[in-house]
Design goal:
84% helix; mainly alpha; 79 residues; 3 helices
């Protein structure tokens, strides 16, 4: 049971990491298209929503993939 739970944590951690990387690449593509072709999002809030999802995904991937002590989890949670 412990091994199955650990495997699920790793898989979900990697999924969160991949989601964060993909959304980061979308943002970088947006910056390129915006500077080159003056393309903009339909709504300016989309930019901020994508950034929030990137940071939340990175937070969960760090929590799930790295072995953190209780002290570090508290520091990250406060931050």
């Amino acid at each position: 049971m412990k091994q199955t739970n650990n495997r699920r944590k790793k898989i979900s951690g990697w999924l969160f990491f991949i989601i964060a990387i993909m959304l980061f690449c979308i943002q970088m593509g947006y910056f390129f298209l915006h500077s080159r072709y003056n393309v903009e999002y339909a709504d300016n809030r989309i930019f901020f929503v994508i950034n929030i999802i990137v940071f939340v995904s990175m937070f969960f991937s760090i929590i799930l993939l790295l072995t953190l002590t209780k002290k570090w989890k508290m520091i990250i949670g406060v931050f």
